[in-house]
Amino acid sequence: MQLRRRGGGTASTVGTPSPIGPVAGWHHVRVEALGSNLKVFWDGVQRIEVTDATFASGRVGFVCSQSAATFDNLVVTGCSGFINRAPVLQRVGDRSL
User: CA-to-CA distance for 44 and 29, rounded, in angstroms?
Assistant: First the structure.
């Protein structure tokens, strides 16, 4: 698992990738972005924590590489500009990093 950012047409890894073992079946992934502090959890276990102040705002995306994936119940909260309404989530197809 790795956390990546994309800016100016270039993608780069943020922090150190974390091995997660077999990925078959359903898993719970949580990403917390509080200011410049970013944390990624896999099945309730924190796997990545990094400080990165590159972007003060932006978009959220999930990518699966070298495998097929299904994402279910994707929820984004705390989005400024979306007070009392949910952001619109759209499938964007293959957006390889």
Answer: 8
pLDDT digits (tens, 9 = 90+) for 22-77: 778 888 888 888 888 888 888 889 999 999 988 877 777 777 777 777 777 777 77
User: In this structure, what are the phi and psi dihedrals at residue 89, rounded to the nearest 5 degrees?
Assistant: -100, 135
Q: What's the CA gap between 77 and 75, in Å, rounded?
A: 6
How would DSSP label each residue in 63-87? ---SS-----S------TT-TTSPP
Residue 27 Cα distances to 24, 30, 69, 73, angstroms: 9, 10, 11, 11
CA 75 to chain centre: 11
